[in-house]
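Input structure tokens:
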């Protein structure tokens, strides 16, 4: 591996040897945690706000997914890989065994070349829905709910402090030498 992690050449050479771990992330925090955990392939949908992700993720195979409606041509597809999304596991196994393409399973069994899940599912970030093919390893939605309530409480405390004129306290302001203040006043008169 190099600074960019597994190359396409590496992935094709791993076909049939072991299962590559692949996750889709939404945030750089998720991506960095996935990298630290040892995830080998990380992907996300492209947006300008995510353009810096690859520079923060050296050592993993990082990829931007194509926007909805944009597709690679047939020649490109035959070079990079195929995602088998929620198809019967027996069919995914048969496709994997019959093609030279690197196959990626999203809910299509364990016999593809890579296993792919969404970080939001792994981390339990969705409150009410986990797809049947996904596995939830943590319940971060409860933690986010707790943090939301803590934010609301902090904002309410801030409002109370403003209404009680707490910020008049010298602890929360910067002082100015009397002579400097008088000099300023003279200069603006």
């Amino acid at each position: 591996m190099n600074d960019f992690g597994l190359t396409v050449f590496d992935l094709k050479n791993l076909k049939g040897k072991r299962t590559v771990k692949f996750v889709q992330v939404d945030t750089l925090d998720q991506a960095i945690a996935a990298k630290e955990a040892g995830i080998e392939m990380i992907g996300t949908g492209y947006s300008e706000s995510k353009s810096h992700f690859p520079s923060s993720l050296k050592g993993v195979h990082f990829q931007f997914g194509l926007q909805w409606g944009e597709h690679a041509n047939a020649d490109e597809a035959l070079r990079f890989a195929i995602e088998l999304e929620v198809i019967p596991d027996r069919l995914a196994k048969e496709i994997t065994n019959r093609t030279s393409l690197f196959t990626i399973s999203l809910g299509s069994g364990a016999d593809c070349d890579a296993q792919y899940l969404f970080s939001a599912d792994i981390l339990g970030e969705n409150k009410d829905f986990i797809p049947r093919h996904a596995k939830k390893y943590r319940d971060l939605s409860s933690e986010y709910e707790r943090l939301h309530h803590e934010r609301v409480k902090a904002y309410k405390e801030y409002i109370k402090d403003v209404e009680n004129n707490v910020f008049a306290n010298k602890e929360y302001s910067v002082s100015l030498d009397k002579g400097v203040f008088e000099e300023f006043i003279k200069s603006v008169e």
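The mean pLDDT is 91. The longest strand covers residues 20-24.
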